[in-house]
């Protein structure tokens, strides 16, 4: 099963949401749910991805080229799809999940 996860990229997030993102990553890994997410390495996106991968889960990132150029992509995600823009990013995420 593949599930799309939308999450904030801001690092100014309440600790309760950070905890929930970690727990969600663990649950995805435990239940072998493949995550498709926005590809970011910071904020809740990064916390979720780190947790999922630390527990052996699988994940695909989808990120626009301009965000990769800015260094915003998650460096630990090996399956990263780079799209030309935000619109294609959303279309790709929806199509894959």
Question: How would you explain this protein's 3D organization?
Answer:
This protein is an alpha/beta fold. It has a single domain, classed as Rossmann fold. Helices cover 45% and strands 19% of the residues. It has 4 helices and 4 strands, in the order βαβαβαβα. The chain has a 4-stranded parallel beta sheet, sandwiched between helices. Helix 3 links the parallel strand 3 and strand 4. Helix 1 packs parallel to helix 2. The chain is globular and about 30 Å long. The model has no long low-confidence stretch (mean pLDDT 97).
Strand residue percentage: 15-25%
The string of secondary-structure elements, in order, is EHEHEHEH
As laid out across the biggest beta sheet, the strand order is 1-2-3-4
What is the CATH architecture term?
A: 3-Layer(aba) Sandwich
Largest sheet properties: 4 strands, parallel
Oligomerization status of the protein chains? single chain
Q: In the residues, how many domains can be counted?
A: 1
- Under CATH, the topology can be stated as Rossmann fold
State mean pLDDT (0 to 100 scale). 97
| Annotation, overall tally of beta strands | 4
End-to-end distance: 8 Å
Spatial shape = globular
* Low-pLDDT sequence parts: none
């Amino acid at each position: 099963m593949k599930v799309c996860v939308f999450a904030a990229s801001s690092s100014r997030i309440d600790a309760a949401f950070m905890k929930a993102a970690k727990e969600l990553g663990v649950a995805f890994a435990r239940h072998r749910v493949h995550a498709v997410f926005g590809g970011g390495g910071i904020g809740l996106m990064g916390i979720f991805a780190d947790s999922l991968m630390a527990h052996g889960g699988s994940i695909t990132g989808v990120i626009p080229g301009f965000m990769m150029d800015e260094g915003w992509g998650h460096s630990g995600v090996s399956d990263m799809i780079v799209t030309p823009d935000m619109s294609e990013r959303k279309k790709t995420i929806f199509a894959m999940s």
